[in-house]
Amino acid sequence: MTNSPETPRSPETPRGPVDSSRIPRFAGPATFARLPRLDEVGGRADVAVVGVPFDSGVSYRPGARFGGNAIREASRLLRPYNPAQDASPFALAQVADGGDIAVNPFNINEAVETVEAAADELLATGARLMTLGGDHTIALPLLRSVAKKHGPVALLHFDAHLDTWDTYFGAEYTHGTPFRRAVEEGILDTSALSHVGTRGPLYGKQDLDDDAKMGFGIVTSADVMRRGVDEVADQLRQRIGDRPLYISIDIDCLDPAFAPGTGTPEAGGMTSRELLEILRGLAACNLVSADVVEVAPAYDHAEITSVAASHTAYELTTIMSRQIAGTRAQEKVQEKAAK
Question: Which end of the chain, C or N, has fewer beta carbons within 10 A?
Answer without folding.
Answer: C
